[in-house]
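testing teh design pipeline on a random one, pls ignore if ur not involved
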């Protein structure tokens, strides 16, 4: 409980489900400064803007875990609305950001735009918002340029579609590789420690420990 209270005193977070795919767009802020970041604004930008206003925080950045349409469809519009930079994903997802419009058409998502981030992210980079600093882990497999945002102090990670509660990211999309994905999870995420909780791109979050013990893709049952 002490760890949880300490975490809550340093950071706040709000999950904003967006798009018909119910993607977990996440608003995270530093409690001390109320400076905030929007992670994976996949769409429904007016809904995201309302959540920002209601949370009474100041968004200074947009972070992207990867380039799939349900995670980036609203990024260009939100960047224009807030006048803030986009950071991420890894440059290996450039082919996805170059084709946001065509991807949107396949899912009936209109009003989206192709774009480039203001900063590509690499393994070992760091990003920050207020007093919160996140390490970047390049975790390909679901997409070639997927990244995870990890805050060591908070024992917290934003993993996008790399790992889920009871599952892992799909690998049947262009650039996907199940073998590469499992390698990313085993070599990059599991070593973070069982006490690390995470928000994933869809559905309920979990912890590294819970997934190590029960996730059938990691226990060899799948």
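output:
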């Amino acid at each position: 409980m002490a760890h949880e209270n300490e975490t809550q005193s340093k950071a706040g977070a709000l999950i904003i489900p967006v798009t018909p795919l119910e993607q977990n767009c996440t608003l995270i802020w530093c409690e001390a400064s109320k400076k905030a970041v929007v992670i994976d604004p996949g769409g429904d930008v007016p809904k995201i803007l309302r959540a920002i206003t209601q949370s009474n925080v100041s968004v200074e950045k947009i972070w992207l875990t990867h380039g799939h349409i349900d995670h980036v469809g609203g990024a260009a519009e939100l960047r224009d609305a807030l006048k803030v930079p986009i950071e991420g994903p890894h440059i290996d997802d450039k082919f996805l950001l170059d084709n946001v419009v065509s991807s949107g058409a396949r899912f009936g998502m209109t009003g989206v735009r192709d774009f480039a981030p203001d900063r590509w992210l690499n393994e070992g980079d760091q990003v920050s918002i207020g007093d919160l600093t996140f390490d970047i882990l390049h975790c390909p497999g679901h997409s070639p340029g997927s990244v995870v945002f990890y805050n060591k102090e908070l024992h917290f990670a934003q993993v996008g579609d790399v790992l889920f509660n009871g599952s892992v990211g799909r690998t049947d999309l262009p650039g996907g590789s199940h073998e590469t994905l499992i390698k990313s999870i085993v070599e990059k995420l599991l070593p973070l420690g069982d006490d690390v909780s995470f928000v994933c791109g869809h559905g309920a979050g979990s912890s590294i420990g819970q997934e190590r013990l029960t996730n059938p893709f990691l226990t060899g049952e799948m």
